[in-house]
User: Fold these one by one.
Assistant:
Number 1:
Amino acid sequence: MSTSPRPRPAEPRLPDAPPSEAAWKVDAVTAIVHGSLERLLDVVPEVDDPLGAELLGSDVAGIWWAPGAERDQGMRASEALVARSYAAHLEQLGDDRALAALRCLQAGAGGGWTDELAGAATRLADRGRREPPWWTAARERRPAHGGELRWTVHGRELTLLLLQIADPYGGVTLVPIVDGGADGVIADILLVTELDGLIDYLAGHGQVGPSITWTSPARAAERTREAIARTDLIGVAAPPPGSEREIGYVGLRGVLQRWTEAALAG
């Protein structure tokens, strides 16, 4: 007489293991990439001038900034990894908006972003996607003047570096504020259209030297590049009075890099 096999007791069910830190990081990065891409694609049709493109690209890239102590690798390598993801998603989308988004990032994101983006943008342009009307002017922008001034407020010494571009919409100056002297880190970045107004503000909140010391764009850019490198390694300094640090450095770091690179390239 045959008998059916006895059922085996069920094995105990173990609780699911928590995701590893690496898996959590991948999920977080994916969510941020998709969220920031969605915002970029929503806003990019409204951009109608080079400065707007630079600021949008810089703001999106700034989401990924963190000082060196919070990263496993150099800033440029981290940026390249993220840029590769953006480039792949936008190239796959493949429409005019995608090309405009890539050009925004090229215009306003610095460091490791641009090389990763250029190939995808070129391929979309070669496939007949329409270039945004501001792109030619954006890639040709060069700082026209460099300079610096000193500001003492509440006993604190600050150096304001100046990178000024002759813009069709008026002069535009990026002003990284460096804590202390030549070896300081950046406390904030300002974007101003009226230097006289900035000097009046500084004079009302501290003591300012007699005038701006004008230098070559390359000289100002070299000092700016050194300050960015220190800040990327150490972190930002305490903000000066009236500063909104999380907007200033994070949002404007990319465009400051781009203008610095353009000035050094001549």
Note: The beta strands are 143-153, 156-165, 172-179, 186-192, 207-208, 213-215.
Number 2:
Amino acid sequence: MTLKNKNIGLITGLILMTVSFLFYARLHDTFQLLLFCGVLLSLLSYLIILCSKGTINTKSISTMVVVCAILIQPFTSSLFIKASYLIFLKYNKKALTEVNNILGKQIGDVVVLNGIITDKNKLLTKTEIETLVKLRKELGVYMIAKSSDEIYYGLWGFLDNRLGVHFQLKNENQQYLKNHLFGKWFL
């Protein structure tokens, strides 16, 4: 069986769908674009394969590839989503550590949203405020929120859907409901 454009389109679409999850945490808009393009390309290619003049064998193999991709997708997507968060943490380790050091010693809640910092206890110095604003922008997060238990980094959000990572401040195991990434980092 020689690979034709329709087969290449199907395989490329399925690969795009799978790889898109590597951008889930870091570049959510890229994730959505790749996933949409992958679904569209693989769907159109599969329909062309089914409607074109081809052997039953070719159509059966294409159907088996699609079924296998559907069965494997839940496993690969969860692995790639976790990898996406780990990549974010790895490439931003210095900035994240600096924010954790500044906010970890603060008493009370602190929220860094865009260029505005809400510090009800007014314990942050001017230098710390400037540093936090700069680091929030450098990290590419829309929000950093510190509570008594954790520091939350909001990576993407829309209405009630929020994606981010949590840095646990206390050693107590209060984060049992969240997915553990490594160390004190959770989803």
Note: The helical segments are 5-20, 28-51, 56-91, 93-104, 126-139.
